[in-house]
Design brief:
The structure is a single chain. It is built from eleven helices and no strands. By secondary structure, the chain is mostly helical. Helix 3 crosses helix 5, helix 3 crosses helix 8 and helix 7 runs antiparallel to helix 10. 20% of the residues are buried. About 2% of the residues have low confidence.
């Protein structure tokens, strides 16, 4: 097969794969979730296997433990968070009124000292108008996620299909890797293996590392804000922690909402406002100095702007499934792009004086 025929074949394979993903995107969620769970738990299965536990037994134990833990978290935590979210939305008009009556006049005074005119801005209209827009967006998202028969099918498929997919993928993970390795083109097998190891290193940094970071921050913020006595502290903390995989967004959003609620609740007790702020500052210090260097480091290799672009692009193209796979997929693309750029820097295209490499 000539080089041109090889390129045509690979382009055809990639095109068909992308077309199938687009056509089948509505049914991919349980399979994507099962693959992510298998990849996340594979080190634990390997660890048990090295200690003499048969693969299918270790897989069964790990999958059962994982899903029992997940179900307990959902059963115990989700109702509390949902209840606090509903109450938070009920109190939102009160917070807006408090801002208009207490905060905005002070802002006008301070802005006037610097020559900034805020009188022309109507905070009530702006907040209410923006609040209505935000609620429309949130309502649309919740309707898309929770409404209709498709949502019911997705929930049932997650509960029924995902554990089965996760079990079989985890049980046969090493065999699948070996089988794929046997089909690698012999002339390029070592190069592909090297890039696959780099991709695994990057994905391990994001899928395993970032998940652990988000879980820790959700627990830390939720518990810390609850102990501070902050209204809706569990909802604010858990939400801030779980969306911390979006650079700066989770902590910033949690900090702004948490401080806003703290100001309204502890208006005459500034010490507690400082304590709420301290929870977020301490969480960021632990993440930046301990969790991120140890669990993630620089393995993902994506700029925060690219991560946000990946999330928006994935969500726009494939919905919730796209959000799940967007950053890992962009991380893989990043590895391949860096490899291609390195090859380019050693090619005659980058070094005009060097003769082109002969191909057999």
């Amino acid at each position: 097969m000539t080089r041109r025929q090889q390129m045509i074949a690979w382009v055809a394979i990639i095109t068909v794969t992308v077309a199938l993903l687009v056509l089948l995107r509505d049914m991919l969620l349980p399979f994507v979730a099962g693959m992510a769970i298998a990849y996340f738990l594979d080190p634990a299965a390997d660890w048990m296997e090295r200690r003499g536990v048969r693969r299918w037994i270790s897989t069964l134990l790990i999958i059962l433990l994982f899903f029992v833990t997940a179900i307990l978290i959902v059963v115990l935590l989700v109702p509390l968070v949902s209840d606090q979210f509903a109450k938070f939305m009920d109190h939102l008009p009160n917070y807006i009124a408090f801002f208009n009556e207490r905060i905005w006049p002070s802002l006008e005074v301070w802005a006037g000292r610097f020559g900034i005119d805020l009188v022309a801005i109507d905070p009530k209209t702006a907040l209410v108008g923006n609040g209505e827009q935000v609620m429309k967006v949130v309502g649309g998202v919740l309707t898309g996620l929770l409404g209709g028969g498709q949502a019911i099918f997705n929930v049932l498929s997650l509960l029924v299909i995902t554990p089965v997919v996760g079990f079989y993928l985890l049980r046969d993970w090493d065999q699948m890797v070996t089988r794929i390795d046997d089909y690698l083109p012999l002339d390029h097998a070592e190069t592909i293996r090297e890039q696959a190891r780099e991709i695994d290193r990057v994905l391990a940094g994001f899928v395993r590392g970032q998940m652990l970071v988000c879980l820790f921050l959700a627990a830390f913020y939720g518990l810390g804000l609850t102990l501070c006595g902050l209204q809706f502290g569990l909802f604010i903390g858990v939400t801030a922690g779980m969306i911390s995989f979006i650079p700066y967004v989770g902590t910033t959003l949690g900090f702004v909402v948490g401080i806003g609620v703290a100001i309204a609740q502890f208006w005459n007790e500034p010490v507690w406002i400082a304590v709420v702020a301290g929870v977020f500052v301490l969480g960021q210090m632990i993440e930046g100095n301990v969790l991120h260097p140890v669990l993630i480091g620089d393995r993902v290799g994506l700029h925060p702007v690219w991560i946000m672009f990946a999330l928006l692009a994935g969500g726009s193209l494939f919905g919730f499934v796209g959000i799940l796979i967007s950053v890992p997929l962009f991380a893989v693309i990043g590895v391949l792009a860096r490899f291609a750029l390195e090859r380019y820097r050693h090619s005659y295209l980058y070094r005009p004086g060097a003769p082109p490499k002969k191909t057999e």
